[in-house]
Amino acid sequence: MHRRDDRVPRRVRWTAVLVAALVLGPGTLAAHAVWSDRHPVTAGVTSTGSLGATASWAGSWSAWQPLVPGRSSDTAALRVSATGSGDTLRWRVNAAASVSAALTPYVSTQVFVGACGTGTPLPAGGYAPAGGYALGASVDLCLRVTLDPNAPSTTQAIALTPQITVTVDQATS
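Structure (tokenized):
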């Protein structure tokens, strides 16, 4: 007696699985795209911030100490504060010092954040802690002026007239 095999041949089964995968696979991805969801977001008002600065001498200081070759004279603290508007606005401080042209070859200047000599020397490009100063914060600067030890005697009695220019810039990081 001959028995008939009702089973589906192996080749036909694998072909059916492969066809199903090819048909249903992309269809499943397309169905995913159809079922994605979106919600509109209401746009609010956005504006730029504003940044301003004030500077004033902290403590009592009214004049420079006389300079002799090799010695320095320091200012009192110059307190710099930034004001403005903006929730995330941060700032850094920068300063440049100069003296009268006749003394420029013999006089060096250095600005410190904090006390002269013990504070942080102000680097080129300005100073701010990580993330910058917040609006309303203050920082003290000190200017040190030093007369070169080899300054000629012709520098005596020349008015020093040091100047410090302070700038406050937005800190971007």
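DSSP finds one helix and nine strands in the chain. The CA atoms of residues 24 and 30 lie 10 Å apart.
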